[in-house]
Amino acid sequence: ELGVERRFVPESCPREVRPGDFVRYHYLGSFPDGTRFDSSYDRGSTFNVFVGKGQLIAGMDKALVGMCVNERRFVKIPPKLAYGSEGVPGVIPPNAVLHFDVLLIDLWNSEDEVQVQTYFRPEKCPRTVQVSDFVRYHYNGTFLDGTLFDSSHNRMRTYDTYVGIGWLIPGMDQGLLGMCVGEKRIITIPPFLAYGEEGDGKEIPGQASLVFDVVLLDLHNPKDGIVIENQLVPESCERRSQTGDFLRYHYNGTLLDGTLFDSSYSRNHTYDTYVGKGYVIAGMDEGLLGVCTGEKRRIIIPPHLGYGEEGRGNIPGSAVLVFDIHVVDFHNPSDSVSITVNYKPSNCTVLSKKGDYLKYHYNASLLDGTLLDSTHSLGKTYNIVLGSGQVVVGMDMGLQDMCVGERRTVVIPPHLGYGEDGVEGEVPGSAVLVFDIELLELVSGLPEGYMFVWNGEVSPNLFEEIDQNHDGEVLLEEFSEYIKAQVDSGKGKLAPGFDFEKIVKNMFTNQDRDGNGKVTAEEFKLKDQEAKEEHDEL
């Protein structure tokens, strides 16, 4: 009688050998006294054969039926189910009972198809693998008995390939179809859809079933463009970015599987660049067009519009990039100051001009609303002489033609503000500034070029009046006392907003033409006299 002893049966047995199946197994063949007559282990290869088709001795054909992969059986085969009364000359004597210690390695059928078992699928799956898509995935490749033959994880590099165009074995081409990024599946491939009778000539033997444990990391098609997903668009959007604009934005950059590769937030500094000029990758150049200040959007960029097949830094080759951006501000180099009048008094006849002394309150912020500074919090006004370079050029422009009590919003592009460098610790480089201003006081200035004017007629004996000790020379002290007396009495007026001593010293230096610290009657001239002499000389 045929004797079958099941010495090891695996816990999981999804499939058993049936007649017509193809099997790969190892065995030790011996006689009842323990003498070995054959062994597949000695040859270093499995025994590969169809079951139930007469390719085996009758006893082995029966003994293999019902076996699982990784099952071990001890089989006793009587002569009538083995080599009978003839035996095998030189190997098996006549009427020999044969013992086989069998371990099943592989099992398949010519009618098998690729088997796919998904054991994880993301909740969100906007896109699945289709024919001609390019994918990046990790895998562990094993035989049906669990023996590992290859792993992309060990190489620390994804396997990157097109699907469905013959770059892969047919079974993998089929098994990857329909996968989502992030999905994990086990793909079991029979040998006729893998490496067939010959194997790969290296690690994979002929007629081997293959099992791939796959996780899909990336997916795109060469025809893909960028994808924009709007996450937050401000209700008020007066202006959208165009080619040639300069943008400041924050971003998180990830791969399609969520792996973070870069972030401007971690550097605590926006990324600043021109748009549509080739300063950034093509996909970002396109994705940044049409944004509003304050907008948040997701830009998905295929590799041919990103860093291509080579990748860059910690970005692998052929990687799809996902940028979550937040636009902080943008401007154009051709922009001028923008003025919006929020309130103007009904009596608005005296307007600010160059040289006027102004006192005003302001709130200063970035275009995204971040507060930079406020005179209200300091409890005092900001005081300047308009057009004298005491503030940035854009503020000098924004304060022109304003009346006391007026409130306006002044938007200043960086080239009229603090430029590319900004103010360290206070104003970021290339930042657009927004000032909400209220003018509280205006003191009219003097005509351009004048630091002092007379309110009435000028004395014909002006030099003698200044030269109080009548020695024919005027010193700085005499000059200063005289000017102060004229201002105090209302006969003269100094340019408002400047330091008295500095103005007087400047006026005295202009009169002290030989620079000896004294002004003589010959040196002393009024401004209109200087202008007349220069005209006559010309």
Automatic annotation (TrEMBL):
The organism of origin for this protein: Sclerurus mexicanus (tawny-throated leaftosser)
EC number: 5.2.1.8
Region listing for Disordered, in residue ranges: 511-538
SMART domains, per the entry: EFh (SM00054)
Cited PANTHER family: PEPTIDYL-PROLYL CIS-TRANS ISOMERASE FKBP9, PEPTIDYLPROLYL ISOMERASE
Phylogenetic classification of the source organism: Eukaryota, Metazoa, Chordata, Craniata, Vertebrata
Cross-referenced Pfam families: EF-hand_5, FKBP_C
Subcellular location: Endoplasmic reticulum
Leader sequence segment: none
Keywords: Calcium, Endoplasmic reticulum, Glycoprotein, Isomerase, Metal-binding, Repeat, Rotamase, Signal
Protein's UniProt name: peptidylprolyl isomerase
Gene Ontology CC annotations of this record: endoplasmic reticulum
SUPFAM superfamilies: EF-hand, FKBP-like
Entries under Gene3D superfamilies matching the protein: 3.10.50.40, EF-hand (1.10.238.10)
Catalysed conversion reaction: [protein]-peptidylproline (omega=180) = [protein]-peptidylproline (omega=0)
Residues annotated as domain PPIase FKBP-type: 20-108, 132-220, 244-331, 355-443
Domain of life: Eukaryota
Every EF-hand domain range: 454-489, 499-534
Function: PPIases accelerate the folding of proteins during protein synthesis.
Enzyme class per UniProt: isomerase
Entries under PROSITE patterns matching the protein: EF_HAND_1, EF_HAND_2, FKBP_PPIASE
Gene Ontology terms, MF aspect: calcium ion binding; peptidyl-prolyl cis-trans isomerase activity
